[in-house]
Amino acid sequence: MKDDIAGAGPPRGLKADAIGFTDALVIGLNSTSPAYSLAAVIGPVVALVGVYAPGVMLASFVPMLLIASAFFYLNKADQDCGTTFSWVTRAMGPWAGWLGGWAVAMTGVLVVGSLADVAVTFGLLTVGLDSWAESDLVRQGLTVLLILVMTAVCVIGTEASAKVQNVLILAQVTCLLIFAVVALYRVYAGTTSLDSLAPTPGWLNPFGSGGAALTGGLLLGVFIYWGWESAVNLTEEVKDSATAPGKAGVWSTIVLLVTYVSVAVAVVAYAGTTFLADNAGEEEYVFALLAGEVLGGWDWILLLAVATSALASTQTTIIPASRTILSMARRHALPGHFSRIHPRFHTPHTSTWWVAAVAIAWYLVVNQISPNALLDSLTALSLLIAFYYALTGVACAVYYRHHLTSSLRNFLFIGVGPVAGAALLTWLLAESVIDMSDPKNSYSGVSWFGLSPPLVIGIGITITGMITMLGWRLFSATYWSERPGVATPEAVHGKRS
Questions:
Q1: DSSP-based three-state secondary structure for 238
Q2: What is the pLDDT of residue 423?
Q3: Residue 356 sits in which domain range?
Q4: For a tag site, which of 177, 264, 315, 398 has the least CB within 10 Å?
Q5: DSSP strands (E only) in 198-329
Q6: Which of 329, 454, 315 is CA-nearest to residue 29?
Protein backbone atom coordinates (compact mmCIF):
# COMPACT_ATOMS: atom_id res chain seq x y z
CA MET A 1 0.00 0.00 0.00
CA LYS A 2 1.51 3.29 -1.01
CA ASP A 3 1.79 6.40 1.15
CA ASP A 4 0.08 9.16 -0.76
CA ILE A 5 2.13 12.31 -0.86
CA ALA A 6 0.14 15.44 -1.47
CA GLY A 7 1.68 17.65 -4.04
CA ALA A 8 4.11 15.04 -5.31
CA GLY A 9 2.59 14.95 -8.77
CA PRO A 10 4.47 17.67 -10.69
CA PRO A 11 7.84 16.71 -12.17
CA ARG A 12 10.66 17.57 -9.84
CA GLY A 13 12.93 19.06 -12.45
CA LEU A 14 16.31 18.44 -10.78
CA LYS A 15 18.85 16.90 -13.13
CA ALA A 16 18.95 13.15 -12.61
CA ASP A 17 22.26 11.23 -12.73
CA ALA A 18 24.24 14.50 -12.69
CA ILE A 19 26.96 13.15 -10.39
CA GLY A 20 28.22 9.81 -9.13
CA PHE A 21 29.02 8.22 -5.76
CA THR A 22 32.53 9.72 -5.55
CA ASP A 23 31.27 13.24 -6.23
CA ALA A 24 28.59 12.84 -3.57
CA LEU A 25 31.19 11.53 -1.12
CA VAL A 26 33.45 14.52 -1.76
CA ILE A 27 30.59 16.97 -1.29
CA GLY A 28 29.64 15.23 1.97
CA LEU A 29 33.23 15.50 3.20
CA ASN A 30 33.62 19.13 2.22
CA SER A 31 30.35 20.08 3.88
CA THR A 32 31.90 19.27 7.24
CA SER A 33 34.86 21.58 6.47
CA PRO A 34 37.45 19.21 8.02
CA ALA A 35 40.41 21.59 8.33
CA TYR A 36 38.31 24.48 9.61
CA SER A 37 36.37 22.23 12.02
CA LEU A 38 39.57 20.76 13.43
CA ALA A 39 41.14 24.17 13.81
CA ALA A 40 38.06 25.53 15.54
CA VAL A 41 37.66 22.80 18.16
CA ILE A 42 41.08 21.27 18.82
CA GLY A 43 42.07 23.93 21.36
CA PRO A 44 38.80 23.92 23.33
CA VAL A 45 38.62 20.11 23.32
CA VAL A 46 42.19 19.81 24.63
CA ALA A 47 41.39 22.43 27.28
CA LEU A 48 38.60 20.12 28.46
CA VAL A 49 40.07 16.61 28.12
CA GLY A 50 43.83 17.06 27.60
CA VAL A 51 45.60 14.31 25.67
CA TYR A 52 42.32 12.39 25.32
CA ALA A 53 41.15 14.76 22.56
CA PRO A 54 41.62 12.07 19.85
CA GLY A 55 39.51 9.70 21.98
CA VAL A 56 36.72 12.26 22.27
CA MET A 57 36.71 12.64 18.49
CA LEU A 58 36.46 8.87 18.25
CA ALA A 59 33.52 8.82 20.68
CA SER A 60 31.76 11.68 18.86
CA PHE A 61 31.85 9.55 15.72
CA VAL A 62 29.51 6.93 17.23
CA PRO A 63 26.21 8.88 17.17
CA MET A 64 27.10 10.22 13.72
CA LEU A 65 27.55 6.71 12.31
CA LEU A 66 24.28 5.56 13.90
CA ILE A 67 22.37 8.50 12.40
CA ALA A 68 24.11 7.94 9.06
CA SER A 69 22.57 4.45 9.12
CA ALA A 70 19.15 6.07 9.50
CA PHE A 71 19.84 8.34 6.51
CA PHE A 72 20.92 5.32 4.46
CA TYR A 73 17.74 3.31 5.06
CA LEU A 74 15.34 6.24 4.85
CA ASN A 75 16.90 7.28 1.54
CA LYS A 76 16.25 3.76 0.27
CA ALA A 77 12.54 4.30 0.82
CA ASP A 78 12.29 7.91 -0.30
CA GLN A 79 14.82 9.57 -2.62
CA ASP A 80 13.67 13.11 -1.84
CA CYS A 81 16.15 15.99 -1.66
CA GLY A 82 14.31 17.22 1.45
CA THR A 83 15.73 14.26 3.42
CA THR A 84 14.80 14.89 7.09
CA PHE A 85 11.76 16.97 6.17
CA SER A 86 10.34 14.39 3.77
CA TRP A 87 11.22 11.34 5.87
CA VAL A 88 9.92 12.66 9.17
CA THR A 89 6.70 13.75 7.44
CA ARG A 90 6.26 10.21 6.10
CA ALA A 91 6.97 8.58 9.45
CA MET A 92 5.64 11.02 12.06
CA GLY A 93 3.36 13.46 10.28
CA PRO A 94 3.54 17.00 8.88
CA TRP A 95 4.05 18.95 12.11
CA ALA A 96 7.23 17.12 13.11
CA GLY A 97 8.38 17.03 9.47
CA TRP A 98 7.98 20.78 9.04
CA LEU A 99 10.02 21.55 12.17
CA GLY A 100 12.74 19.16 11.04
CA GLY A 101 12.92 20.89 7.67
CA TRP A 102 13.03 24.31 9.31
CA ALA A 103 15.98 23.24 11.49
CA VAL A 104 17.93 22.01 8.46
CA ALA A 105 17.29 25.21 6.52
CA MET A 106 18.26 27.46 9.42
CA THR A 107 21.59 25.72 10.04
CA GLY A 108 22.67 26.82 6.58
CA VAL A 109 21.61 30.40 7.22
CA LEU A 110 23.53 30.53 10.51
CA VAL A 111 26.81 29.09 9.29
CA VAL A 112 27.36 30.20 5.67
CA GLY A 113 28.51 33.71 6.57
CA SER A 114 30.96 32.48 9.19
CA LEU A 115 32.47 29.92 6.82
CA ALA A 116 32.91 32.51 4.07
CA ASP A 117 34.48 34.89 6.59
CA VAL A 118 37.04 32.26 7.60
CA ALA A 119 37.76 31.42 3.95
CA VAL A 120 38.42 35.08 3.18
CA THR A 121 40.51 35.66 6.31
CA PHE A 122 42.77 32.64 5.85
CA GLY A 123 42.98 33.24 2.11
CA LEU A 124 44.31 36.74 2.79
CA LEU A 125 46.72 35.42 5.42
CA THR A 126 47.95 32.78 2.96
CA VAL A 127 49.03 35.44 0.45
CA GLY A 128 50.43 37.79 3.10
CA LEU A 129 47.63 40.39 3.08
CA ASP A 130 47.36 40.47 6.86
CA SER A 131 46.27 44.13 6.95
CA TRP A 132 43.33 43.35 4.68
CA ALA A 133 42.32 40.48 6.97
CA GLU A 134 42.31 42.85 9.95
CA SER A 135 40.05 45.38 8.21
CA ASP A 136 36.37 44.71 9.00
CA LEU A 137 35.22 46.60 5.93
CA VAL A 138 37.48 44.73 3.50
CA ARG A 139 36.92 41.32 5.11
CA GLN A 140 33.14 41.63 5.28
CA GLY A 141 32.91 43.00 1.74
CA LEU A 142 34.95 40.10 0.38
CA THR A 143 32.89 37.66 2.45
CA VAL A 144 29.64 38.85 0.88
CA LEU A 145 31.23 38.66 -2.58
CA LEU A 146 32.42 35.11 -1.90
CA ILE A 147 28.95 33.98 -0.80
CA LEU A 148 27.49 35.38 -4.01
CA VAL A 149 30.12 33.64 -6.15
CA MET A 150 29.71 30.25 -4.45
CA THR A 151 25.92 30.58 -4.68
CA ALA A 152 26.26 31.19 -8.41
CA VAL A 153 28.34 28.00 -8.70
CA CYS A 154 25.55 26.09 -6.93
CA VAL A 155 22.98 27.53 -9.35
CA ILE A 156 25.02 26.88 -12.48
CA GLY A 157 24.82 23.17 -11.84
CA THR A 158 25.55 20.20 -9.61
CA GLU A 159 28.28 19.00 -11.99
CA ALA A 160 30.08 22.36 -11.70
CA SER A 161 29.73 22.21 -7.92
CA ALA A 162 31.20 18.70 -7.86
CA LYS A 163 34.20 19.71 -10.01
CA VAL A 164 34.97 22.63 -7.70
CA GLN A 165 34.61 20.38 -4.64
CA ASN A 166 36.95 17.73 -6.06
CA VAL A 167 39.73 20.31 -6.42
CA LEU A 168 39.12 21.80 -2.98
CA ILE A 169 39.07 18.47 -1.11
CA LEU A 170 42.29 17.39 -2.80
CA ALA A 171 44.04 20.63 -1.79
CA GLN A 172 42.64 20.46 1.72
CA VAL A 173 43.52 16.83 2.47
CA THR A 174 46.99 17.17 0.91
CA CYS A 175 47.76 20.19 3.09
CA LEU A 176 46.49 18.48 6.23
CA LEU A 177 48.52 15.33 5.58
CA ILE A 178 51.69 17.34 4.96
CA PHE A 179 51.15 19.16 8.25
CA ALA A 180 50.46 15.94 10.21
CA VAL A 181 53.44 14.07 8.75
CA VAL A 182 55.87 16.94 9.35
CA ALA A 183 54.54 17.48 12.89
CA LEU A 184 54.95 13.82 13.87
CA TYR A 185 58.36 13.62 12.20
CA ARG A 186 59.58 16.59 14.22
CA VAL A 187 58.17 15.08 17.43
CA TYR A 188 60.10 11.85 16.99
CA ALA A 189 63.20 13.70 15.72
CA GLY A 190 63.16 15.92 18.79
CA THR A 191 63.22 19.17 16.81
CA THR A 192 60.00 20.72 18.13
CA SER A 193 59.95 24.20 19.65
CA LEU A 194 57.07 23.42 22.01
CA ASP A 195 56.50 20.91 24.83
CA SER A 196 55.83 17.93 22.59
CA LEU A 197 54.51 14.58 23.76
CA ALA A 198 55.01 11.06 22.45
CA PRO A 199 51.66 9.62 21.27
CA THR A 200 50.31 6.56 23.12
CA PRO A 201 47.30 4.27 22.48
CA GLY A 202 45.78 5.60 25.71
CA TRP A 203 44.99 8.89 23.95
CA LEU A 204 42.16 7.07 22.15
CA ASN A 205 40.34 6.41 25.44
CA PRO A 206 37.52 9.00 25.61
CA PHE A 207 36.78 8.17 29.25
CA GLY A 208 40.24 9.02 30.53
CA SER A 209 39.28 12.60 31.32
CA GLY A 210 36.18 11.97 33.43
CA GLY A 211 32.44 12.47 32.90
CA ALA A 212 31.95 16.25 33.01
CA ALA A 213 34.89 16.96 30.71
CA LEU A 214 33.77 14.21 28.32
CA THR A 215 30.30 15.77 28.00
CA GLY A 216 31.75 19.13 27.03
CA GLY A 217 34.15 17.51 24.60
CA LEU A 218 31.40 15.51 22.94
CA LEU A 219 29.33 18.65 22.42
CA LEU A 220 32.23 20.12 20.48
CA GLY A 221 33.01 16.82 18.77
CA VAL A 222 29.53 16.46 17.26
CA PHE A 223 29.94 19.85 15.57
CA ILE A 224 33.01 18.75 13.58
CA TYR A 225 31.13 15.82 12.00
CA TRP A 226 28.03 17.84 11.10
CA GLY A 227 27.38 18.35 7.39
CA TRP A 228 28.08 14.92 5.89
CA GLU A 229 24.38 14.53 4.99
CA SER A 230 24.77 17.03 2.14
CA ALA A 231 25.61 13.96 0.05
CA VAL A 232 22.10 12.64 0.71
CA ASN A 233 20.44 15.97 -0.07
CA LEU A 234 21.68 15.42 -3.63
CA THR A 235 19.85 12.09 -3.86
CA GLU A 236 17.68 13.18 -6.81
CA GLU A 237 20.80 14.17 -8.76
CA VAL A 238 23.04 11.16 -7.96
CA LYS A 239 23.32 8.01 -10.03
CA ASP A 240 21.83 4.95 -8.28
CA SER A 241 19.86 7.32 -6.05
CA ALA A 242 18.36 4.60 -3.84
CA THR A 243 21.69 3.52 -2.35
CA ALA A 244 24.65 5.67 -3.51
CA PRO A 245 23.77 8.86 -1.54
CA GLY A 246 23.23 6.90 1.67
CA LYS A 247 26.51 5.04 1.20
CA ALA A 248 28.27 8.34 0.53
CA GLY A 249 26.92 9.69 3.82
CA VAL A 250 28.10 6.65 5.80
CA TRP A 251 31.55 6.62 4.19
CA SER A 252 31.88 10.37 4.77
CA THR A 253 31.69 9.84 8.51
CA ILE A 254 34.29 7.04 8.35
CA VAL A 255 36.77 9.09 6.29
CA LEU A 256 36.25 12.02 8.66
CA LEU A 257 36.97 9.80 11.65
CA VAL A 258 40.35 8.75 10.24
CA THR A 259 41.23 12.34 9.27
CA TYR A 260 40.21 13.90 12.58
CA VAL A 261 41.88 11.34 14.83
CA SER A 262 45.12 11.37 12.79
CA VAL A 263 45.48 15.15 12.73
CA ALA A 264 44.40 15.47 16.37
CA VAL A 265 47.15 13.05 17.42
CA ALA A 266 49.71 15.03 15.41
CA VAL A 267 48.58 18.39 16.85
CA VAL A 268 48.49 17.22 20.47
CA ALA A 269 51.84 15.44 20.08
CA TYR A 270 53.59 18.48 18.60
CA ALA A 271 52.05 21.34 20.57
CA GLY A 272 51.34 19.64 23.88
CA THR A 273 48.30 20.25 26.03
CA THR A 274 49.49 23.48 27.68
CA PHE A 275 49.96 25.42 24.44
CA LEU A 276 46.63 24.26 23.01
CA ALA A 277 44.71 24.95 26.22
CA ASP A 278 46.28 28.41 26.59
CA ASN A 279 45.25 29.27 23.04
CA ALA A 280 41.82 27.63 23.12
CA GLY A 281 40.17 31.04 22.85
CA GLU A 282 41.83 31.65 19.50
CA GLU A 283 39.46 29.12 17.88
CA GLU A 284 40.44 28.44 14.24
CA TYR A 285 43.45 30.76 14.55
CA VAL A 286 45.28 28.15 16.62
CA PHE A 287 46.24 26.58 13.26
CA ALA A 288 47.61 29.93 12.15
CA LEU A 289 49.79 29.90 15.27
CA LEU A 290 50.91 26.32 14.71
CA ALA A 291 51.59 26.77 10.99
CA GLY A 292 54.78 28.74 11.53
CA GLU A 293 55.87 26.51 14.41
CA VAL A 294 55.61 23.28 12.43
CA LEU A 295 56.25 24.32 8.83
CA GLY A 296 58.39 27.44 9.18
CA GLY A 297 58.42 29.36 5.90
CA TRP A 298 55.95 26.86 4.46
CA ASP A 299 53.24 27.92 6.91
CA TRP A 300 51.06 28.95 3.98
CA ILE A 301 50.32 25.25 3.41
CA LEU A 302 48.25 24.96 6.60
CA LEU A 303 46.67 28.38 6.11
CA LEU A 304 45.63 27.26 2.62
CA ALA A 305 44.11 24.08 4.08
CA VAL A 306 41.83 26.07 6.39
CA ALA A 307 40.99 28.56 3.60
CA THR A 308 40.04 25.85 1.10
CA SER A 309 38.14 23.95 3.80
CA ALA A 310 35.96 26.93 4.67
CA LEU A 311 35.60 27.86 0.99
CA ALA A 312 34.38 24.38 0.09
CA SER A 313 31.94 24.29 2.99
CA THR A 314 30.58 27.73 2.09
CA GLN A 315 29.32 26.19 -1.13
CA THR A 316 28.23 22.78 0.12
CA THR A 317 26.36 24.11 3.16
CA ILE A 318 24.01 25.95 0.80
CA ILE A 319 23.00 22.60 -0.76
CA PRO A 320 20.99 21.00 2.10
CA ALA A 321 19.28 24.27 3.01
CA SER A 322 18.23 25.10 -0.56
CA ARG A 323 17.05 21.60 -1.40
CA THR A 324 15.15 21.24 1.85
CA ILE A 325 13.32 24.49 1.07
CA LEU A 326 12.65 23.21 -2.46
CA SER A 327 11.17 19.99 -1.08
CA MET A 328 9.02 21.86 1.43
CA ALA A 329 7.67 24.18 -1.26
CA ARG A 330 7.04 21.24 -3.59
CA ARG A 331 4.87 19.64 -0.88
CA HIS A 332 3.04 22.95 -0.24
CA ALA A 333 4.67 23.35 3.18
CA LEU A 334 6.11 26.69 1.98
CA PRO A 335 5.09 29.16 -0.76
CA GLY A 336 5.24 27.65 -4.24
CA HIS A 337 7.79 30.08 -5.70
CA PHE A 338 10.51 28.40 -3.63
CA SER A 339 10.04 25.26 -5.75
CA ARG A 340 11.13 26.90 -9.01
CA ILE A 341 13.78 25.04 -10.99
CA HIS A 342 16.15 26.85 -13.36
CA PRO A 343 15.09 25.92 -16.91
CA ARG A 344 18.68 25.59 -18.13
CA PHE A 345 20.70 24.38 -15.15
CA HIS A 346 17.98 22.26 -13.50
CA THR A 347 18.88 23.52 -10.03
CA PRO A 348 16.64 25.13 -7.37
CA HIS A 349 17.82 28.64 -8.16
CA THR A 350 15.12 30.53 -6.25
CA SER A 351 15.60 28.71 -2.93
CA THR A 352 19.39 28.81 -3.39
CA TRP A 353 19.49 32.59 -3.81
CA TRP A 354 17.08 33.04 -0.92
CA VAL A 355 19.39 31.02 1.37
CA ALA A 356 22.31 33.20 0.28
CA ALA A 357 20.37 36.43 0.79
CA VAL A 358 19.21 35.54 4.30
CA ALA A 359 22.67 34.22 5.22
CA ILE A 360 24.30 37.49 4.08
CA ALA A 361 21.76 39.55 6.03
CA TRP A 362 22.34 37.45 9.15
CA TYR A 363 26.12 37.71 8.81
CA LEU A 364 26.11 41.50 8.40
CA VAL A 365 23.58 42.20 11.15
CA VAL A 366 25.21 39.92 13.71
CA ASN A 367 28.63 41.41 12.95
CA GLN A 368 27.24 44.84 13.81
CA ILE A 369 26.37 43.52 17.27
CA SER A 370 29.87 42.16 17.90
CA PRO A 371 32.30 39.62 16.41
CA ASN A 372 31.55 37.36 19.38
CA ALA A 373 27.85 37.44 18.52
CA LEU A 374 28.68 35.64 15.25
CA LEU A 375 30.51 32.96 17.22
CA ASP A 376 27.53 32.71 19.57
CA SER A 377 25.25 32.09 16.60
CA LEU A 378 27.49 29.20 15.57
CA THR A 379 27.23 27.73 19.07
CA ALA A 380 23.44 27.80 18.66
CA LEU A 381 23.94 25.41 15.74
CA SER A 382 24.48 22.51 18.15
CA LEU A 383 20.85 22.79 19.25
CA LEU A 384 19.48 22.61 15.70
CA ILE A 385 21.90 19.90 14.63
CA ALA A 386 21.14 17.63 17.58
CA PHE A 387 17.39 18.19 17.10
CA TYR A 388 17.07 17.24 13.45
CA TYR A 389 19.61 14.39 13.61
CA ALA A 390 17.76 12.88 16.60
CA LEU A 391 14.40 13.39 14.87
CA THR A 392 15.70 11.54 11.80
CA GLY A 393 16.97 8.63 13.91
CA VAL A 394 13.57 8.21 15.59
CA ALA A 395 11.76 8.56 12.25
CA CYS A 396 13.78 5.67 10.80
CA ALA A 397 12.70 3.23 13.51
CA VAL A 398 9.09 4.47 13.41
CA TYR A 399 8.81 4.23 9.63
CA TYR A 400 10.28 0.71 9.48
CA ARG A 401 8.59 -0.49 12.70
CA HIS A 402 6.79 -3.42 11.02
CA HIS A 403 10.07 -4.81 9.68
CA LEU A 404 12.50 -4.43 12.60
CA THR A 405 12.13 -8.04 13.76
CA SER A 406 12.32 -9.60 10.30
CA SER A 407 16.11 -9.90 10.53
CA LEU A 408 18.95 -9.16 12.93
CA ARG A 409 20.34 -6.60 10.47
CA ASN A 410 17.08 -4.68 10.40
CA PHE A 411 16.80 -4.78 14.18
CA LEU A 412 20.31 -3.43 14.72
CA PHE A 413 20.85 -1.02 11.82
CA ILE A 414 17.30 0.26 11.25
CA GLY A 415 15.97 0.09 14.81
CA VAL A 416 18.46 -0.05 17.67
CA GLY A 417 21.27 1.92 16.01
CA PRO A 418 19.29 4.99 14.89
CA VAL A 419 17.33 5.12 18.17
CA ALA A 420 20.54 4.87 20.20
CA GLY A 421 22.05 7.65 18.11
CA ALA A 422 18.93 9.76 18.64
CA ALA A 423 19.08 9.12 22.40
CA LEU A 424 22.73 10.20 22.57
CA LEU A 425 22.01 13.37 20.61
CA THR A 426 18.95 14.15 22.72
CA TRP A 427 21.12 13.87 25.83
CA LEU A 428 23.68 16.19 24.26
CA LEU A 429 20.86 18.59 23.32
CA ALA A 430 19.68 18.67 26.93
CA GLU A 431 23.24 19.19 28.16
CA SER A 432 23.66 22.02 25.65
CA VAL A 433 20.53 23.79 26.89
CA ILE A 434 21.65 23.46 30.51
CA ASP A 435 25.12 24.73 29.65
CA MET A 436 23.85 27.61 27.54
CA SER A 437 21.42 28.77 30.21
CA ASP A 438 24.40 30.36 31.97
CA PRO A 439 25.40 33.61 30.19
CA LYS A 440 29.02 33.00 31.17
CA ASN A 441 29.14 29.97 28.87
CA SER A 442 29.28 31.96 25.66
CA TYR A 443 31.89 33.75 23.58
CA SER A 444 30.51 37.18 24.41
CA GLY A 445 29.90 36.38 28.08
CA VAL A 446 26.90 38.73 28.13
CA SER A 447 23.31 38.09 29.20
CA TRP A 448 20.33 38.26 26.85
CA PHE A 449 17.11 38.05 28.86
CA GLY A 450 19.02 36.28 31.63
CA LEU A 451 20.31 33.55 29.29
CA SER A 452 23.37 33.10 27.08
CA PRO A 453 23.13 34.53 23.54
CA PRO A 454 23.40 31.07 21.85
CA LEU A 455 20.38 29.77 23.76
CA VAL A 456 18.38 32.92 23.00
CA ILE A 457 19.25 32.58 19.31
CA GLY A 458 18.19 28.93 19.34
CA ILE A 459 14.91 29.72 21.09
CA GLY A 460 14.31 32.67 18.75
CA ILE A 461 14.78 30.52 15.65
CA THR A 462 12.45 27.87 17.08
CA ILE A 463 9.71 30.39 17.90
CA THR A 464 10.08 32.04 14.48
CA GLY A 465 9.73 28.62 12.86
CA MET A 466 6.61 27.76 14.83
CA ILE A 467 4.99 31.11 14.01
CA THR A 468 5.86 30.65 10.32
CA MET A 469 4.50 27.11 10.36
CA LEU A 470 1.21 28.11 12.04
CA GLY A 471 0.82 31.10 9.73
CA TRP A 472 1.30 29.01 6.60
CA ARG A 473 -1.00 26.33 8.02
CA LEU A 474 -3.80 28.92 8.15
CA PHE A 475 -3.02 30.07 4.61
CA SER A 476 -2.62 26.63 2.99
CA ALA A 477 -3.86 23.35 4.49
CA THR A 478 -2.68 21.04 1.68
CA TYR A 479 0.51 19.77 3.27
CA TRP A 480 -1.12 19.27 6.68
CA SER A 481 -3.62 16.83 5.22
CA GLU A 482 -0.84 14.25 4.84
CA ARG A 483 -0.89 11.29 7.22
CA PRO A 484 2.08 9.29 8.50
CA GLY A 485 2.59 5.85 7.01
CA VAL A 486 4.79 2.80 7.36
CA ALA A 487 7.39 1.26 5.08
CA THR A 488 6.45 -1.59 2.76
CA PRO A 489 8.73 -4.66 2.53
CA GLU A 490 10.03 -3.31 -0.80
CA ALA A 491 11.31 -0.14 0.88
CA VAL A 492 13.93 -2.10 2.81
CA HIS A 493 15.42 -3.11 -0.53
CA GLY A 494 15.47 0.36 -2.03
CA LYS A 495 12.09 0.63 -3.71
CA ARG A 496 9.84 3.58 -2.99
CA SER A 497 6.94 2.71 -0.71
A1: strand
A2: 95
A3: 21-336+343-493
A4: 177
A5: none
A6: 315
